[in-house]
Design goal:
Number of helices: 5
Helix content: 55-70%
Structural class: mainly alpha
Distance between the termini: 40 Å
Strand order of the largest sheet: 1-2
Strand content: 5-15%
Number of strands: 4
Radius of gyration: 18 Å
Order of helices and strands: EHEHHEEHH
Largest sheet: 2 strands, parallel
Shape: elongated
């Protein structure tokens, strides 16, 4: 099922920095928007110019991000209708899982740098989860 209307822009803001290539940061944000459901499978993306203006970046930078997402299979183009989010739910699910594993890895590295062992980290996580669900 295809949604040919352009989605309203996702709620999250564009927070681009100078520490990494901007097109990669754009890709990461769009991937996050896809896995969190801000853009659903089959949704039409806003145009390159619209998103470039929203993110305050050069349209060529946004085009590069779109091209890379298309190369990865997360976005596809219909000649005269624009770009759409993949309808491959397993691809989106795999992306979500990979993003979660990356976040966990970064967290564990940070905890290790702070001097926490795996056991100590797990104990703190359990404590935090118990407090959150109480």
């Amino acid at each position: 099922m295809e949604n040919t209307q352009t989605m309203k822009k996702p709620e999250s803001e564009w927070h681009l920095t100078n520490d990494r290539p901007v097109f990669i940061q754009i890709m990461e944000k769009l991937k996050r928007d896809i896995v969190t459901g801000s853009y659903r499978p089959g949704d039409k993306l806003p145009s390159v110019r619209e998103l470039a203006a929203e993110a305050a970046v050069n349209p060529n930078t946004m085009q590069r991000a779109f091209s890379e997402l298309e190369r990865e299979g997360l976005v596809y183009t219909k000649r005269t209708n624009g770009r759409f989010i993949t309808e491959d739910l397993s691809m989106i699910s795999q992306l979500k899982e990979q993003m979660a594993l990356d976040a966990i890895s970064q967290f564990l590295n940070s905890m290790q740098q702070l001097g926490f062992s795996g056991k100590e980290t797990l104990a703190l996580l359990k404590e935090s989860l118990e407090e959150e669900t109480a």
